[in-house]
C-alpha cells in the first residue's frame, strides 16, 4: 500500500509539474501587462516590468519561476494585493470560503442523500418525480439569479437574515445567521448533484441480488436499504462526495460577490484579468495539487470503502 | 491623473457632526465600496485608494470645505501654512508644525518626508508612483535621474533642511495651485514611517510590505485604521495626534467591501450603510428621490478614431471623422443610457477649474464658449454632408469596428446605439459597423498600438489644471491612445504648462481654447459625454455643501452634520 | 358426438417430419428502431423532446413572429414591461409597472397613465408615492405589444430571446459536436489500444484538465474575439474530456466482448472492430451525453457572459440576456424571468430527454420494457 | 406437525407482469403443495415461471408484478394477503430462500459473519456473542473450515462454492421450516455442485426441512427430489414422485425432456432427441395446451382447450389430453419408440485411416500467463501452464475441467487471440503461434474458427443475422457481395434457419437459434478446425440437444475437426472421440472417450466423473461422489510428467504415481 501510494505520488508530482509548466507558458502568453495605468510613461512602465523580469524571453522567466517554485514560493502578488506573498494571500482567503463551504457540505450531503434515497425508494412515483424536477430546477437556474432572489426576498424583503455576511472573524451565532443564505445558495447545486447520483446508484443497488437475499432473510425494505444498498452505493458516491470535501477550498465567484464574502471565488478570474501571474500560478498550483490529491484520495477511498480492493482481491 | 475605468464607481468619502444631545456617542459613518488593493502610498493605482489614503495619511497641506466662502480651501496640515516660493517659482519651502506625531506617538518631521521621497524614487524599488514627482504637474530636479539610478540622492531637489523645513527644487516653474495640489491629500507625497517601511523590506531592498496590512499602515492623517480585513472591511477612527482632526465631524468610519451594485442598494435601503452610488440600472427607481445628489468627473468620454489607419484610408479623412462627430446623439447617450451623464461635445470637462482663485471653471469662460459647437454638436444634415464627401473620396462601402469594454454594460449599449444610428443615418449600404468587446486594459493597449478603428476612451486629469491634461494629445506623450499630431498644439501645450504663459491667466485660457479648437477641427476623437454619478445620502446626514459637489472635497461628507443612528 | 370428439383427439403433427422453428411475425426491428420504440413509450421524454422541438422551431421563427427586429432600438421605449394580449386582462403582463415618484409629478406626468396609488410616504420632507403606472399609456404607445417587454435600448425582448436561444443552441450544438468528435476519437484510441498508449493519453488528459478553463477561455476570447465560434471552441477545450472518458470505459468493456473476439478471430482489422463492433455500443451513451451536454454548454456560455466574456454585441444569447437582466433583476424582472424560464425549460427538457434516451438505448432493458 | 403433512399450498396462482409490450402471463394457475420434510423439485425450461412462483411465495416479487388470483396457504394463512411487515416476519424465520448466483447474492462489502448473523440480531434480537456462536456452528455445518477466521472475511475471499454455502448458512440462520432453492447450483462446477447438493440433502435430513428445489437439470432432480413438479409456460403440467416422473412420465413434455438428456451410454453416432421449436411467448399465452405446437402427439383438442389435471395415481397427476379416456395412449415407451426410431444415425467414425493419423494441430508446451498490475501488486495468473496435445484430422477432441482451469484460454491461444507466453502451436505442420498481428499466421487462422459460449454475448446486437454470418467472408475479401449472400442463405438453411431470418436481429431469436447463428458464422469460412468453447453450457437441456445434433451433423458434412470445450462430462463423453482433462492450467489426463470413462486414472478425473448428475433416480440414490484433494500429490521430490500409460492414454504424475496408475490399469483390464 505504502509503495503504491509512493508510486502514485511520484506520478502526481510529474503531472503537476507538467500542468504548472504548461500553465506558465499559457498565462504568460496573454497579451497586456499588469500595469494598467495608461498615463504611465513607457520607460517607467518598462523599468517596473523589468524588475519582475517580464520583458525577458519566456524561457528565462520560466527559469526564475522554477527557482522559487521548488521551494513552493510563488513570490509576491503584483496586482491583486501588491507586495503580499501569494501563499499568504491564499492563506487568508481560503479559510473564508471554507467556512461557508463546510456548512454547505454539512447541509447538502445528508439532505442530498436523503432526497436521493427517497426518490430511489419511490422510483417512478410522485415523490420521485417531484424530487427529480426540483433537482433539475436547482441545477438549471443559474446561481446568480438564484442567489440574487434569495437575497432580495429573504434578506431584504422579509428581513429574516442579513443582506451580506457579517465581518466577524470568528464564528459567532450572528455570523452564522448571516451565512445562512450563501450556504443555502451554495448547497442547492450540490444537494441536487448528490441526490441525483444517489438516486441513480441506489436504483441499481436496489435491484441487485444481495438485496433480494437480504429481504429474504427477513429484513424490511428500510433495513435492507440502509444496511446493504447504501453501503454499496457509497463507492461510486465517493466519486462526487470526496471532491466536494477537497473542493471546500474554492469559492463561488457569483455567490461570494453577491453576499460580499471575501473568499477565493474571484481570485483566479481577477488574477488572470489583472495579469497577476504569481497569484494565478499560485492558485493554479494549489488547486491542481488538491485536484490531483483528490483523485488519489478517491482511488484510495475505494480501498477503504470496498474491502475487495483493500484486502487486495481482484475486482 | 488616472484613466477612468468606469464612471459608475465614484469616490465615497463623506463626513458629519456631533449631535448636541448625544455628545458622548461617537458619530459613525457607514459606507460601502470596492476592494482596496494596497495602501502603500508609493504604488497605489486608483482614486478609491487615494481617497482612503486621504483619511489616514496626512500631508503637508489639506483641502477642506470652507463653510464661510462656501467653497474649497487649502490649509496647512503638517505644514504650518502654505509654502513659500522663490521668484521664478522653482524653489519651494515648507515649514512644518512642531510636535507632529505618528499614530504610535513617535515624532514625525521633515526628515520623514525626505526619507519618504527617497524611497518613492528609489531606483531599486521602482515604485510606480515615482513619476508623480518627475512626470506630472511638478518636475523635481533630478528625480527622474535618481529613479533611473543615474545620480545620488544628494542631487535630487528634495531636502529636509532641518527637522521642520522641507525644500523642493523644481526643474520648471509651477503655478501655485499645481504645486499646492501636489502636496495635499494622501498618496505618494504623504510621508511613510521609516521604521515600518524598513522593517518590511526584503533582503535585496527591492520590495517592502508597507501598506499591505493594518500593522504596516501607520497613520499620519486625521483618521487611523482600527481594523482592516482585506476585501471585507475597514474601520477608521480619529487619530488623536492629527493637527486637523477637529475639522471633521465624523468619529468613526466603517467601510464595507460590497462589489455587487444591487446588494449595495439593498444595504442602503435597509439602513445598513449611509450612502450609495447608483448605477444607471438602479437610477430609474430613484430618479425623483429627494436624497439624490450628483458628483462630477473630470473625464470626457470620447470615441477615439484611428486617424492614422493604414488599411482604412477613410479614417484618415477628416470629413469622415466630422461626420461621426455631428452624427453622435450625445443627449440620448448621456440621458437614456447613462441616465445621469451630461452630453459633452467638447474636450475639457466642465468640472475643471481655470481660475482657482475665483473657483471659475474653464467652460464658464468666454474663450471656452466660443469653441463650443451648436446644439451639443448634433447636426445630422451637416453629418451627412461630411459623410457624403468622405464616401465620395473613398468610393466604396466603409467597414469599421467599434471596440468597447467587456466589463461595462453601458459602453456596450453606447456601441450598439452608435452602430444603429450611424448605419441608419449614413445607410447600411455605405457603412457597416461591427462591434467587438475587449477587456478594458487591452482596449487601451490596442489604441496605443493603433490596432483599432474606433474605440472608447477618456482621460481624467487634475481638476485645477486643464492645461496639463492636454499632455495626452501631444506627440511626445508616451502612452498616447490617439493618433493626433500637431506641432502647433504641442507648442501651445509647452507654453501653457512649462513656458511663458504659466502665470498669464487670460492668455493661458485662450491658449487652452485654441488647443481645444484644434482638436475639435481635427477630430482625432469624438467627445461624447461627461459622467455624473448619482449619490444618495441617508436622511440623517445633512451635507455641509448642501448637495453641491466641489473639486477636491466632493460633498465634504466628513465635515457634514450627522443625526445619531437609531 | 362421438365422431366429433374422435376428431378432437386426432394427432395433428404426427406426419410432419420435423417441427421447424416458428416463423417471425412483423418487421425486423433494428437496434435504433427498437430504441426509438421504447423511447416513444416514455411519455415524459417524448414531451421533453416536443418542447425542445418547439423551442428550436421558435428559435428559428420566433424572431419573425412580430414586427420587431433583434437589434432595432427604440430608446424612448426602453425597459418597457411585458404586455401580452389576452393575458393582460388577467392583471399580469399588462404593461403596468410600480414606480416611486414625487407626489407632485403624479399630476404632472402620470395623470393619464396612473393605475393605482399603492403607498404614500415622505422622504426628507418631500411627499412621495409608490404608484402603478401603465407604461404603454404613459409612453403613448397603447397600440404596441412587447410580449416580453423591452431591454434598456428599447429592443423587443421576445425577438431577442428567441434570437438568443438560437445562438445559444448553435453554440451548444457546435461545441457538443466538437466534443463528441474529439472525445470519441480520443477515447476510442485510448480504450482500444490500452496499455502504454492509454497510460500516456490519460496523463495528457490529466494535464489538460488541470489547466483552469478560465485561463484558456480568456486567452481564446482575447485572440479571436468573443464570437460564436471562439466561445464554442473555448467550451470544447476541456469539454471533450468527459466524453472521452465515457467512450474509453465503453471500449474497455466491449473490446473483450465475445462478438468482438469472434470478429477478431475472423481476421477483422482494428478499424472494423472499432467502428463496426465497439463504437455502435457507445452510440446510446454518445446520444445521451450529447443531450446532457447541450444544457451544460448553454449554462457555461451564460456563465461566461456573466463574467463579461459574452458574445459580440448586439448579438444576444441566453447567457448575455441573463447577465444583462441580472443587473436590473429587482427593478426590471422581466429581463431575467423570461430567459431564466427558457433556460430552465431547456435544461429540464434536455435532462428528461437524456434520461429517456439512456433508458431507450440501454441494452439490458431491451425487449422487456 | 408430522412428516408428510402439507405445510405449504399454492392454489391457482396467477401472476402477470406489466411491461411496455403488454402483460406477461408468467404464472397461469400454478397449483402444488409441499409436505413437511420432503423435497419438491420444480423443473422446466428457462422462462417457464419457476422463479416467479418461488418469489411469489417469499413475497418478493418485482414491482411490476401483479398477483391476479390465487392463494398461498402457509400455516393456515394466505401469504398473499399479508402486509409487507407481516411477510417480513415470515421471511427468513419460516421460509428462507437461496438464489441462483452465489457471486452476487452476498453483499460484497459486508463481512461474512455479519451477513449470517444479521437476521438473528435484527429480527430475533439475539445478543452478539450468541449470534456469533450460532453462526460459527452454521458455518461448520455447511462445511466451512477455519470458521473463526472466515467469520471476519469478505465474500470475495471465498470461492464460488463456499459462497453458496454461506448463502445456505444465511438462509438457515433463523431456523426456517421451508427452504426454497432457486437453481442454487447452476452457476457452479459439477464437482462443487455435487458437494452443495450433498450438503443440502444432509441439512434437510438433519433439520427436517421442507425444500422446494428449482432447477432445469433433470440429473439434479433425480438426485435431490422426493416429488417433482414439471412446469411449462407458467403452469405445472405434471407432478408425481420422482420415480413416477422419471419412469412413467405422462405428459409429452416431460417425456421429451427426459429423452433429450444424453447419458453416458449414448454415443455420438446417434442423434439426440431434441424438442423442436421454442417455448411460447408468455405475452400472448396460447390457447389450449401451451406445449401443443411443439408436441409430436398434439391432438386437435390441444389447440382448443386447456387440459385439466388428470389423475394417474394418488401421487401422480398430469395435465394432458392424452390421459383423456378417449385419447390414444402414449406412454413413455411408445414415445421413445416413436421419436427415437426416427432419429438419424450419423456416420460411424472411421478410425485408423491415413488422414486421421496426421495431427492437424499440435500444441507443444503451451504456456499462457496473464500479468496484471505492476510492482508489488503484480499478479501473474498461469491460466495455461505447459500443456501439450495433438488433434488429429477429423476427430473431436474434448477438453473438460472445472471453471477457470484454462480451457478457454487454451482455445483462444490456438486461434491466436493471445500470443502465447511460451510454447508453439503448429497447424498443418506450420507454426502459427505468433499472435494475430503477424500477417503470415492470419492465413492459417482463417482455417480455424471458433464458436463461443454465450449465444447472447457473441452476436453483435446491432447487426443483422446476415451481416453477422457474412462478416468472415467479407473480411477475407474473396467473394462478391452476391456470392456472400448466396452462401449466407445456404448456411442458414444448413443450420436450420431460413432465408427470411437473414434480416433479423439476434435478440429476436431464442437461445438455441442464436447459437446456431454462431455456428453458421464459424462454419461459413470453411474452416478445417473449429474450436467450440462451451457452445451449449448456456442453453437449456432441450435446446442443447438441438445444437449438439446440428454440430454432429455438420461435422460429417464439412469434414470438420473439432476442439470441443465443455465442463459437462456427459456431453463431452457423448460427443468426443478423445478427451483431455484439465486441472489448474495443466492437462492431467488424455485418452479416448470410452477409455477415459472406463479407466479414469488421475484422481481428478475420477472425481469429475463421479460428480456427473444422471437423470436416473435409482442411479443417483447409490451414487458416491469422490472428492479430489490436490494436496495428495507430492511433487517436491519427483518432477511430474505426462506419460503414456497405455496406447493413447496419457496421464500426468510423478514417477511413483504413474507406477500406481499403471497398476490400477492392469486391475481394470
Ligand atoms: N420483472 C419482470 N418483468 C417482466 N417479465 C418478467 C419479469 N420477471 C420475469 N418475467 C417473465 O416471467 C416469465 C417467467 O420467469 P421466471 O424467471 O420465473 O423463469 P424461470 O422459470 O425461473 O427461468 P430460468 O430458468 O431462466 O430462471 C419469463 O417469461 C420472464 O420473461
Ligand atoms: N485476459 C485475462 N487476463 C487475466 N487473467 C485471465 C484472462 N483470461 C483468463 N484469465 C484467467 O485465467 C484463468 C483461466 O481462465 P479460462 O477462461 O481459460 O478458464 P476456463 O477453464 O475457460 O473457465 P470457464 O469454465 O469458467 O470458462 C482464470 O483464472 C482466469 O481468471
Ligand atoms: Mg429462474
Ligand atoms: Mg471458459
Automatic annotation (TrEMBL), chain A:
Domain ABC transmembrane type-1: 94-302
Protein name from the UniProt record: Oligopeptide transport system permease protein
A single GO cellular-component term on record: plasma membrane
Protein family (similarity comment): Belongs to the binding-protein-dependent transport system permease family.
Subcellular location: Cell membrane
Keyword Chloroplast recorded: no
PANTHER family (alphabetical): INNER MEMBRANE ABC TRANSPORTER, OLIGOPEPTIDE TRANSPORT SYSTEM PERMEASE PROTEIN OPPB
UniProt-listed InterPro entries: MetI-like, MetI-like_sf
Keyword terms of this UniProt record: Cell membrane, Membrane, Transmembrane, Transmembrane helix, Transport
UniProtKB/TrEMBL annotation, chain C:
Superkingdom field: Bacteria
Its membrane topology: Multi-pass membrane protein
Keywords: Cell membrane, Membrane, Peptide transport, Protein transport, Transmembrane, Transmembrane helix, Transport
Location(s) in or outside the cell: Cell membrane
Cited InterPro entries: BP-dependent_transpt_permease, MetI-like, MetI-like_sf, OppC_N
GO process terms (BP): peptide transport; protein transport; transmembrane transport
PROSITE patterns found in the cross-reference section: ABC_TM1 (PS50928)
A Pfam family recorded for this sequence: OppC_N
Main localization of the protein described in the UniProt heading: membrane
Ranges of residues in domain ABC transmembrane type-1: 165-354
Gene Ontology CC: one annotated term: plasma membrane
Annotated transmembrane regions: 46-65, 167-192, 204-222, 228-247, 278-299, 337-357
Family per record: Belongs to the binding-protein-dependent transport system permease family. OppBC subfamily.
Protein name: Oligopeptide transport system permease protein
Organism of this sequence: Tepidimicrobium xylanilyticum
High-level lineage: Bacteria, Bacillati, Bacillota, Tissierellia, Tissierellales
UniProtKB/TrEMBL annotation, chain D:
GO biological process: peptide transport; transmembrane transport
Any single Pfam family the record assigns to this protein: ABC_tran
Keywords, ordered alphabetically: ATP-binding, Nucleotide-binding, Transport
GO molecular function, one term: ATP binding
Domain of life: Bacteria
InterPro entries: AAA+_ATPase, ABC_transp_ATP-bind, ABC_transporter-like_ATP-bd, ABC_transporter-like_CS, Oligopep_ABC_C, P-loop_NTPase
Ranges of residues in domain ABC transporter: 8-258, 361-609
Stated family: Belongs to the ABC transporter superfamily.
Protein name as catalogued: Peptide/nickel transport system ATP-binding protein
